[in-house]
Amino acid sequence: MIDLTPYRALIFDMDGTLVESGPLHEIAWRETLERYGLPILPALMRSLAGVPTRQTLEIVARESGVSLPAPVDEMNAFKEARVSELAPRYVKATALGNLALEQNGLRPMAVGTGADTDEARRILDHCGLLSLFDVVVGADQVQHPKPAPDTFLACARALDHPPHECVVFEDADLGIEAAQAAGMAVIDVRSRFQFVNEYFLADEAVG
């Protein structure tokens, strides 16, 4: 049981926190990387969980010693389209969806995610969660996405609460770093809820 008494506002990461989406993103990423001829590096992809698609593509190319084979916006659009098409088969709410439902109307709540806003809203809506949140802040709304604090600070501003009154629920090291940099309390859902972000755990594609 989590004591939320000290906090006036709640901020949730999406993928791996509110939404079980590891298989969805692995399939979409594998298809994207294969389509554009970039190598699939499972360990690197796991380390980039929570990083927006555009930045991930740039990092993969840099770490592989190659140039991006197409405009990054084109590659991002392809991956987003695959996520939208595959989401009905592969995403579902986690136990934190129940916590958000319990807190609905009691505390203002936001989602701060490394996904683009439109994609995040579609996934949350598919999982029946979108209406619970006052605001959704995606990577496209901030100049510096996670691990910078901008995403969570934007959530706090939208909820009209200072950072020290907010608590962030996160499942990724870079997201936890972002919450701490924002001056917010953070709950690592991997340890508190035994969540596992099943993302590029093996070299074989998820089917």
Automatic annotation (TrEMBL):
Transmembrane segments: none annotated. InterPro entries: B-phosphoglucomutase_hydrolase, HAD-like_sf, HAD-like_SPP, HAD-SF_hydro_IA, HAD_sf, PGP-like_dom2. SUPFAM superfamilies: HAD-like. Gene3D superfamilies: HAD superfamily/HAD-like (3.40.50.1000), Putative phosphatase, domain 2 (1.10.150.240). One of its GO terms (molecular function) is sugar-phosphatase activity. CDD domains: HAD_BPGM-like. Belongs to the HAD-like hydrolase superfamily. CbbY/CbbZ/Gph/YieH family. NCBIfam families: HAD-SF-IA-v3, PGMB-YQAB-SF. This is Fructose-1-phosphate/6-phosphogluconate phosphatase. It comes from Saccharospirillum salsuginis. The gene is yqaB.
